[in-house]
Automatic annotation (TrEMBL):
Substrate binds at residue 136. Belongs to the aldo/keto reductase family. Residues 1-18 form the signal peptide. It comes from the Eukaryota. The record marks 103 as: Lowers pKa of active site Tyr. This is 1,5-anhydro-D-fructose reductase-like.
Length: 353
């Protein structure tokens, strides 16, 4: 039974004759901010080529996507803005049809940085507001660290991160109408609870790594209890992301697992569709990344079948807990595991068996 706090608005219609789902077919998750968020969105990390982005977004919009996830550090907000502006100006979309998420970067983790980085994002996206503004990670680096906000060195970490001051600045942006809802990414329960206890505006969304082998069951239960929607990044396992995945944690190819393939064959669906359906049936939002038009269309075409209890039990049992986590960000930001707000206590002092 889905938690009423996540209130999955079932507007699901069977997709006939293999046609892509309409935007109205896509299930939405109610947010504690009063709005709702499409349960399937397009992730755009690692898509920074203009032609590739234009092709991907056009395919996604044609396929029924209205939820798009980006971030300052993806360096593609301006490309997304260009395509959305074209669709809006041609009358193919209304702004209220869209749900756009972007994120405060780790080098903007000071209260005074919040309006600066959000205004930059809005200018690049060519929007007056975003539907969700997330704190990208709970730790911060120095404002001038790295090169264009990435490629950090051993002296990049800023240990003075103050979540409550940053959140207060985020709330001010919401009150000003530049962000309709606020959330966090990669935060742990303690960090989320600190915000809940000290602000009249709780996070509306938590975005975290979540997939078959890292199902985040305790964290999801905590969020449901506190009426916080959960978004899964890397919902099909994100192969090919070694730049930020710990070098000893090889991303598994979840699509080739025998159990997943068998369930896919049973329902005449792809393994990716099974993995995404497994997550969304729990009321969790997914943002699979792809720039391939065929896979983009397949990834949203998951509303005409339901995994039965046996399927769900099989897939639930494949969770590896923290052993399945891929994104520790220690490769990305040297020394970040020693930041006082590094969220994964189990990985502070190495070793991995």
């Amino acid at each position: 039974m889905l938690s009423p706090s996540l209130c999955v608005a079932l507007a699901v219609l069977a997709v006939a004759n293999g046609a892509p789902p309409k935007a109205s077919d896509v299930t939405k998750v109610a947010l504690n901010s009063g709005s709702s968020m499409p349960i399937v969105g397009l992730g755009t990390w690692q898509v920074a080529d203009e032609r590739e982005m234009e092709k991907a977004l056009d395919a996604a919009l044609e396929a029924g996507y209205r939820h798009f996830d980006t971030a300052t550090v993806y360096f593609n907000e301006h490309l997304i803005g260009k395509v959305l502006k074209r669709w809006l100006s041609e009358g193919k979309l209304k702004r209220e049809d869209l749900f756009i998420t972007t994120k405060l970067p780790v080098n903007g983790m000071r209260a005074s940085d919040v309006p600066y980085f959000l205004n930059q994002s809005l200018a690049k996206l060519q929007l007056d507001y975003v539907d969700m503004y997330l704190i990208h990670a709970p730790f911060g680096v120095k404002r001038d660290a790295g090169h264009n906000g990435v490629h950090f060195d051993d002296n990049s970490v800023d240990p003075t991160t103050d979540h409550l001051a940053i959140w207060k600045a985020m709330v001010a942006e919401k009150e000003a109408g530049r962000a309709k809802a606020l959330g966090v990414s990669n935060f742990n329960e303690t960090q989320i609870e600190r915000i809940i206890k000290n602000s009249p505006v709780p996070p509306a969304n938590l975005q975290v790594e979540l997939h078959l082998q890292h199902q985040q069951k305790p964290l999801v239960a905590f969020c449901k209890k506190n009426n916080i929607a959960v978004t899964a990044y890397s919902p099909i396992g994100s192969p090919g992301t070694q730049a930020v995945v710990d070098s000893r944690r090889v991303p598994p190819n979840l699509l080739n697992l025998p159990q997943v393939k068998a369930i896919a064959q049973k329902h005449n669906k792809t393994p990716a569709q099974v993995l995404l359906r497994h997550i969304t049936q729990k009321g969790i939002i997914v943002i699979p990344k792809s720039s391939n038009p065929k896979r983009i269309s397949e990834n949203i075409d998951i509303f005409d079948f339901t995994l039965d209890d046996e399927d769900v039990a099989t897939l639930d049992a494949m969770d590896r807990g923290i052993d399945g986590q891929l994104f520790l960000l220690k490769n990305f930001i040297p020394g970040v595991e020693f930041h006082p707000e590094y969220p994964w206590e189990a990985f502070r002092i190495e070793p991995i068996a």
